[in-house]
Amino acid sequence: MNKFEPEEQAEEISVLSVSEENDAYIDYRKLNYKNTMPDNRVLVFLTGFCIGMVFFYLSGGQNASARGLLDQEHLVLMQNFEADESGLFEYVLHLRAKQLLLGVICSLSSIGGIVAFSVMGWCGFEIGLMVFSLVYQYGIKGIFLTFSMFLPHGIFYCIVFLILFRKYWTGNKKCCHKEETIKGRGSRQLLEAVKTVLLILAVFCVGILCEIYINPEIMRKIALFF
Question: 31, 121, 146, 163: which sits with the fewest CB atoms below 10 Å from its CB?
């Protein structure tokens, strides 16, 4: 019996080495695929952006831009606009809190993935339509006007959205799997949930403050160039 043990051990070692090579090759393939293929979120957003561009041209560029909110009269009014910060704070907080609550509900539902990618596509559609409408009216300055409408608060709201729906992004499956195995213990799972909630609330509050106190000034400065 003992004379077969070295042979069996050698076979086990060879099998392990082959499996390790296969795992390494699979990891390399996944890494190479991840580096060469665009993120699904980017693809959905760009698809919506292109659809917005096509919709702009099919609807008649001049007619579509004429229905825009930021016409020349609005821009003139914005140059000397002073927002009521208390009233704006109440309005923005009420609106964004409802959106956050809706996002939390959707992220916990069975259709969370569909909602997440639908929102990405719809945002791409709106931004595409808005960019081409404003560029049609004001030229290259329309691009800066478009970005001034979403910065800097849009960055923080985007971070909140990505955190809420993080388990539905393809690139985070491995990460989520690790979290599920590590956080199988109740105390750690509770701690991670508390950290996530605090992070979302902190980023959300920063976004609200930026939308109330910073974004109106940015838009007013940009409006001076029109």
Answer: 31
**What was the pLDDT predicted at 51?**
95
List Cα–Cα distances, 117 to 9, 50, 67, 170, in angstroms.
51, 15, 28, 11
**What φ, ψ does residue 80 adopt, rounded to 5°?**
-115, 25
Distance CA 191, CA 196 (A): 9
Residues in Cβ contact with 170 at an 8 Å cutoff, skipping those fewer than 6 apart:
39, 40
CA distance 86 to 224: 25
Separation CA 78–CA 219 (nearest Å): 8
Tokens of 191: 């701690």
- What CA–CA distance (Å, rounded) separates 153 from 151? 5
Written as one letter, the residue type at 26 is I
Place of tokens 């990618």: 117
The kind and range of the H/E element at 106 are helix 85-108
Mind listing the pLDDT tens digit for each residue in 103-162?
A: 999 999 889 999 999 999 999 999 999 899 888 888 888 899 999 999 999 999 999 999
Instruction: Check: pTM over 0.85? Answer yes or no.
Output: no
Using DSSP's 3-state secondary structure scheme, residue 212 falls into helix
Pick the closest to residue 125 from 33, 38, 217, 49 (CA basis).
49
Q: How far apart are the first and last CA of the chain?
A: 91
